[in-house]
Amino acid sequence: MSDLSFVRTEMLPEKEPPASTVGAIGWARENLFSGWFNSILTVVSLTVIYYVLSTLLTWAISPTWSATSLGECRDILAEVGREGHYAGACWGVIRDRWIQLLFGFYPSELYWRPILAFILLGVALAPVLFSDKVTPKLLWFSAVFPFLFPWLLWGGTIWAPLAVIAGFVIGWFVYKAVDASAGSLAGIIAAVVAAVVWWMFLSGYVVNGVPNPDDPNAVGGLNALLPIGIEAVESRNFGGFMLSITIGVVAIACSLPLGIVLALGRQSDLLIVKALCVGFIEFIRGVPLITLLFVASTLLNIFMPPGTNFDIILRVIIMATLFASAYMAEVIRGGLAALPKGQYEGADSLGLNYWQAQRLIIMPQALKISIPGIVSTFIGLFKDTTLVSIIGLLDPLGLSNSIRADAAWNGIVWEIYGFIALMFFVFCFAMSRYSMYLERKLHTGHR
Amino acid sequence: MSELAIEREIDRSKMQVSDEVAIEITNMNKWYGAFHVLRDINLTVQRGERIVIAGPSGSGKSTLIRCINALEEHQQGQIVVDGTVLSSDLKNIDKIRSEVGMVFQHFNLFPHLTILENCTLAPIWVRKIPRKEAEETAMHFLEKVKIPEQADKYPGQLSGGQQQRVAIARSLCMMPRIMLFDEPTSALDPEMIKEVLDTMIELAEEGMTMLCVTHEMGFARQVANRVIFMDQGQIVEQNEPEEFFNNPQSDRTKLFLSQILGH
Predict the structure, then answer these.
(1) Could you say which of A43, A66, A95 is where a domain stops?
(2) A445 and B155: CB-CB below 8 Å?
(3) How many domains does chain A divide into?
(4) If you ran DSSP here, which 8-state letter would residue A130 be given?
(5) Residues of A with Cβ-Cβ distance to B168 under 8 angstroms
(6) Is B154 touching A (CB cutoff 8 A)?
């Protein structure tokens, strides 16, 4: 037998890893003290963290909750022997104004409506966000909720949201009728035209009756027959986080489907569709959001026929949606580009048509790949809602200016902005955690 | 490229070539830009035939079978599959694709769906078969490729050979009359090649019309009724396997065979 020959007669059993590499000690040794340089860094970092936290907490823990003005805060702090610029936070302003920071100037006797609307928002989102834990029957409520939500917030006649729903129903029937005789593309076009005609012209007559030139306030139509409704609240009374969340949620919910359509259009073989999508995306991405908001608040009125009342919040939502959808389209295009060509071929070879392949094979995977980018866009959009303060809407930042202008709270900075920042952080952090949960849930092993 | 021995005796009772034409390709030409990939291809496939297409890489063999189910578009000539002329009409293309099964080198399973969902997707959405019935058919074919126990796993959790067998089952669930194989074993470890080849042999034994692009010459010798050799976008030689391997006519074929079987 030669020296090279070797035959294993029994397989080796598994052994425990050495004790110094597992457990708390192992973790600290590996991550904090793995060498002299890292040990120094650890000690320096801990010192800095201690210094920052001790300063911040001394400032934040301050017995000023009941104060009614900045002066009173200073007196309270002086009594406990704390003097100077950073003696302590003045939390009285939050106690005094937190409701305003949440609801703006919404009539206080109607607070139950936004509260109910946001609770129901949670119910409507549950079957969408947690499809494996919540019964799919709730999806019916999710489908109705987009019509219920604005009605609860703005109030007014029940016939307005019903007229909007009727538009979708009309579109559906027109689609079915035309699809059978003239093909699906003609059906979609006819359905959109029919619905738009209904919304723009006919629904007004049905809900409010034929306008009377002598008495513009006269009501007719369904409103005269059955005047069911709740008290209307005007957009200028909206404010605070209620406004931010409304703009943010609606724009987020609308920008995702719009972004998908734009991303598909950008990849389309149809030249005109592609050119339109590329043009839209590049134009919107080339313009700052703030200019779009200015267009929404001022320029748009110039182009509208005189007398049309196009709600300012609706205009802002449309602009924010368009803005986010352009970014969304590019994020999703990245996801589409990351899919191997074989996925398209696999779908094609089974005889799936374009829309089936997109819906069942391509989009589920492309969207999964793009989750981090999509959620980043969502978070950016939600924070960008603070820009509406520049065009005069009273979002939390807009309100903070008026609070600081109040004689009682003149001179307060950190407490209000800290509170607003914390609220935004809660929402954005929740979105970020949800995206990580979703990524884990959708992880089905490597390709 | 090795010649893998197939140990068991092949049951040839149902492996019969009928007179019926399954695929007819006449004067087909294809270009990629200015590059002439397929030149004047003429090929008639009878129902029940098992054809192996061999040739060096870049010879156009994959492109040829991908033209048959319109994954690639040909520019000149005519392809008739099961009596349907392949034109740019999307309805015809979808019809042909649902009749012709295709197995790819890299499996192309859908990683976000379970094995069972992979197999039932097209029957449910294209054939409009009820889910329950589609699942029964899928389990039948998964048993046939010997992995029914993996039905609820995801493709990423399976070995390459298992994935390729799922891909075959997925195609079979559409009840195709013709199967195309595009280098089905080229991305597999040697130990897994055999399990995929065994599945393909079983399929052949049942009389399926098959076109296989493969380098498995053992499979060609024992299962195929015709071997086609391609080079530079043309059919250079075709013959029965015995003749093809033992008595190649053209110099190019001789060179190819000497390289592929020479060691």
Answers:
(1) A95
(2) yes
(3) 2
(4) T
(5) none
(6) yes
pLDDT in tens, B77-119: 999 998 888 887 778 888 899 889 999 999 999 999 999 999 9
Q: How far apart are CA B52 and CA B57, in angstroms?
A: 15
Q: For residue A297, is pLDDT > 70? A: yes
Residue A63 is given by DSSP the state S
d(CA B5, CA A279): 60
Dist. CA B101–CA A363, nearest whole Å:
23
In the block, tokens 């079957």 appear at: A127
Predicted confidence at residue A213, as pLDDT, reads 63
Identify from A343, A350, A355, A363 which residue to disrupt to test chain B contact, counting B C-beta atoms within 10 A and taking the largest count. A350
Sign, CA torsion B30/B34/B37/B38: positive
Using DSSP, state whether B80 is helix, strand or coil.
Answer: strand
User: Residue A443's pLDDT is what?
Assistant: 85
B155–A351 C-beta distance less than 8 A: no
Beta bridge partner(s), residue B100: B178
Q: How far is CA B26 from the centre of its chain?
A: 20
What value does the mean pLDDT take over residues B188-213? Answer: 91
B-contacting residues of A 351-370, CB under 8 Å?
A: 351-353, 356, 360-361, 364-365, 368
CB contact under 8 A, A444 and B106: no
What are the chain B neighbours of A345 within 8 Å (beta carbons)? 71, 104, 108
Q: Interface pTM (ipTM) of the complex? A: 0.90
* Phi and psi at residue B44, to the nearest 5°: -120, 125
Answer yes or no: is A74 within a domain: yes
Flag whether A102 is in a domain: no
| CATH number of domain containing A278 | 1.10.3720.10
Please give the Cα distance from B77 to B87 (Å, whole number): 10
Q: Which residue range(s) make up the domain with A88?
A: 35-95
Tell me, yes or no, whether A203 lies in a domain: no
CB atoms within 10 A of CB B71: 20
Give the burial class of A238: count Cβ atoms within 10 A of its Cβ; 0-12 exposed, 13-18 middle, 19 or more buried: buried
Q: How far apart are CA B83 and CA B10, in angstroms?
A: 31
Query: Is residue A313 situated within a structural domain?
Result: yes
Instruction: Return the H-helix or E-strand segment holding B29.
Output: strand B21-32
- The pLDDT-based confidence of A232 (bands split at 50, 70, 90) is confident
Residues A42 and A33 sit within 8 Å (Cβ to Cβ): yes
pTM for this prediction: 0.85
Domain limit, last residue, from A95, A125, A143: A95
